[in-house]
């Protein structure tokens, strides 16, 4: 399909899970993609996968908190393909600590990656779009942890929650330029690879300080994989969503809509 034919996308944090799947999904719809991140192996694997599938992609290694890196990525996209149409702010640093155990330095670092990175890349991309008279779409990857109180994950939850109103504020400021800014909310995610999915499911099920039953409490009865997210992100990136801005699409199997005491996995509940 070619819903994004000839468009150019920048995706930050193109690791092997959500970011890589989104980058590949955009490329499958015709977009040319700049894959960014700190992990050289992960970024280059993402580029290689896109190219093997017949798409176009280029790697840009760097730290999203560095203003020079954000500027260089936009310049790379413009020099190589002449434009930037789509930005997906996915970069994050997952350092799971609680209020009582997280260091000030790590808290600030996590917020800088999640919020600072989104600020820098959105600003650079928006300035380029405005300067070239081009409309575009910015998509900020949120989390169910942005909408609910998760114990023991204070920096991540705070950063992702901050992205909610960053999305709204940027959307209002950029609307007059034809630039749309939206959020996309995923949840706990299993890899597409069955073996990695099994390992991660076991890790999630392991008891810790705060008991979590990710799969058992999800109304849809299973955790999503990255491929479950791709259609929604492609929609937000495409012209099909041309009147959607300052909004959010959630793909979480019903997690954030569930009435809190209900146990969806209880006996007799599930028929599918």
TrEMBL record:
Gene Ontology MF, one: oxidoreductase activity
Keyword set, alphabetical order: Oxidoreductase
InterPro entries attached to this UniProt entry: NAD(P)-bd_dom_sf (IPR036291), Sc_DH/Rdtase_CS (IPR020904), SDR_fam (IPR002347)
Record-linked PROSITE patterns: ADH_SHORT (PS00061)
Classification via CDD domains: SDR_c (cd05233)
Entry's family note: Belongs to the short-chain dehydrogenases/reductases (SDR) family.
PANTHER family: DEHYDROGENASES, SHORT CHAIN (PTHR24321), ESTRADIOL 17-BETA-DEHYDROGENASE 8-RELATED (PTHR24321:SF8)
Full protein name: Oxidoreductase
Lineage of source species: Bacteria, Bacillati, Actinomycetota, Actinomycetes, Kitasatosporales
């Amino acid at each position: 399909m070619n819903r994004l034919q000839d468009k150019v996308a920048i995706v930050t944090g193109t690791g092997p899970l959500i970011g890589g799947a989104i980058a590949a999904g955009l490329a499958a719809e015709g977009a040319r993609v700049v894959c960014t991140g700190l992990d050289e192996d992960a970024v280059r694997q993402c580029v290689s996968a896109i190219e093997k599938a017949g798409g176009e992609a280029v790697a840009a290694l760097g730290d999203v908190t560095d203003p020079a890196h954000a500027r260089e990525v936009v310049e790379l996209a413009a020099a190589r393909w002449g434009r930037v149409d789509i930005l997906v702010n996915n970069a994050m640093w997952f350092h799971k600590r609680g209020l009582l155990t997280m260091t000030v330095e790590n808290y600030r670092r996590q917020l800088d990656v999640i919020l600072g990175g989104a600020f820098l890349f959105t600003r650079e991309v928006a300035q380029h779009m405005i300067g070239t008279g081009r409309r575009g779409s910015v998509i900020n990857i949120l989390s169910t942890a942005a909408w609910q109180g998760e114990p023991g994950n204070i920096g991540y939850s705070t950063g992702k929650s901050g992205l909610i109103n960053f999305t709204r504020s940027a959307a209002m400021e950029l609307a007059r330029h034809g630039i749309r800014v939206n959020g996309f909310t995923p949840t706990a995610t299993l890899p597409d690879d069955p073996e990695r999915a099994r390992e991660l499911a076991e890790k999630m099920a392991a008891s810790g300080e705060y008991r979590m039953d990710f799969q058992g409490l999800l109304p849809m009865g299973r955790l999503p994989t990255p491929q479950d997210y791709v259609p929604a992100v492609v929609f937000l990136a495409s012209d099909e969503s041309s009147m959607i801005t300052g909004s959010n699409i959630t793909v979480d199997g019903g997690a954030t809509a569930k009435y809190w005491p209900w146990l969806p996995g209880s006996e007799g509940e599930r028929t599918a």
